Amino acid sequence: MKSQEDRFTIPLIFILFILLTLLILTTYFDLHSKINYFYNIYPRQSYINIEEVNRSMILGITEEKTGYLLFDWVKGNVIIRSRSADEVFEHAVKLLAPTGGSIIVNPGTYTLTKPLTLGSKISLKGNGFPTLVFPANSDGIVISEDSSYVEISGLIIRGSKESRSGALLRIKKHGFTIRIANLELFSHYDGIIIEGGMPPKDFWGIIISGVHVHDMSNNGLVVKGYGNVLYVKESNIANSGNACIVLEDTADGVMEFNNIHCFNSGKYSVLAYNTQGGYVQHKRFVHCNLEGIDMRPETSRFTNCINIAFIDVEIAGMRGNGLELINCRDVRIIGGRIINNSIGSPLKYSGIYLKDSRNVLIQGVFIYDFSPPGQKTQGFGIYEDGSSDYNIFQGNVLSGNGLAALKVSGTHSIVQGNIEGD
User: What angle do CA 215, 221, 225 make, to 5 degrees?
Assistant: First the structure.
């Protein structure tokens, strides 16, 4: 018969054994992670057969003195060395194609001679903001048609300002759950092009955040074709030869642009239109700045639109009207500032110009020109034209415009509680 003392001793030994085992495992994994860190920087020189590669692995790419290196990010095994960046990246994509995985690119400059195409479940991530350089008149990174669960982040992507075609990042039709974050895109024809199509070839769930697009000879961001749940936030688009943002044939795709700074476009800050009839619908601009600083865009223009919202948006420094709504319905412009437009054509253009537009609510907006008397350029705060009617202009600050606060032509439009005069 066991003594009372033995009854307590055996469980106590078992508990101590469990605790010791957990301590050993914790120490092992902590040491293993530190070893992996050094392997990521200095991969082992043991080459392996392609068939032996774990298809779900994380792969790393590093620049060397004589070329580029592809290796297993976790185990440190060298997979391939090449003088060609194209070969190394293509090899990585090929290895990950069956089941997906991540490619992590270490600091350096990687010069490619053709587009880099990613498929479903393949992520491309920079470790320390490496630079990928693509040739003129070529796409850069392409997310292929019908791809899902793709992430691109932490990279600097450069092209050629001499380009007359190509985008540094192109997302093809029917993308699903795609995340683009923390990218710097410089000097090419187009920055980002997102392609859609009418269902079932639309796109769903694309999120773009922390992206800076600079010095494109054509457009910064183009959304072309139907799509749903596009969310662009906390990004800058600057120095685009034509337009900062283009929405072409986007129909009723749900899209939000939040905290976007567009400045110095050659012709448009935002250009939204359809070539196939119908309306541009369900678009929201929140806390955005659309500005002309050194370059002066003509305007921000929405043609054939319905259910568009501008919440706390600032528009300033346009050569023409600050914001143009042409044949639009059910538009809300709430808060924000639309100031000092019609640069170069004094008193010819207005802060907000409505043509053939109805059911537009403009409320609580500062629409004025703060230039001294005799130097004002913005002629009217709000200008109704054509068949515009049934609009509401309420509680706006419309002081300081060169000719008048408002020009209202609609017999059913409501003007209430605005502040006018100098």
Answer: 150
Query: Cis omega (within 30 of 0) on the bond before 200?
Result: yes
Of 174, 166, 113, residue with least CA distance to 143 = 174
Cα–Cα distance for residue pair 87/69, rounded to 1 Å: 10
Candidates 352, 345, 346; CA nearest to 381 is 352
Phi and psi, residue 360, nearest 5°: -105, 125
Expressed in angstroms, the distance from the first to the final Cα of the chain is 103
DSSP letter, residue 175: -
Cβ count within 10 A of residue 346: 16
Distance CA 269, CA 285 (A): 13
CB 308 within 8 A of CB 331: yes
Is residue 230 packed enough to be buried (19+ CB in 10 Å), middle (13-18) or exposed (0-12)? Answer: buried
Q: Where are the beta strands (DSSP E) in 225-347?
A: 228-240, 243-248, 255-265, 268-273, 280-286, 289-291, 299-316, 323-339
Element (H, E) at 267: none
pTM of the model: 0.85
Q: Which two tokens stand for residue 80?
A: 């391939």
> What are residue 292's phi and psi, to 5 degrees?
-105, 125
Nearest by Cα to 397 from 382, 413, 375: 382
Residue 392 CA to residue 374 CA, distance in Å, equals 30
Euclidean distance between CA atoms 105 and 141, whole angstroms: 14
Print pLDDT tens along the chain (422 aa).
445 555 556 666 666 667 666 666 555 444 444 334 333 444 444 344 433 333 468 999 999 999 999 999 999 999 999 999 999 999 999 999 998 999 999 999 999 999 999 999 999 999 999 999 999 999 999 999 989 999 999 999 999 989 999 999 999 987 788 999 999 999 999 999 999 876 666 778 899 999 999 999 999 999 988 787 899 999 999 999 999 999 998 877 889 999 999 999 999 999 999 877 778 888 999 999 999 888 889 999 999 999 999 999 999 999 999 999 999 999 999 999 999 999 989 999 999 999 999 999 999 999 999 888 888 999 999 999 999 999 999 999 998 999 999 999 999 999 999 999 76
Q: What CA–CA distance (Å, rounded) separates 380 from 169?
A: 40
Length of the chain counted residue by residue: 422
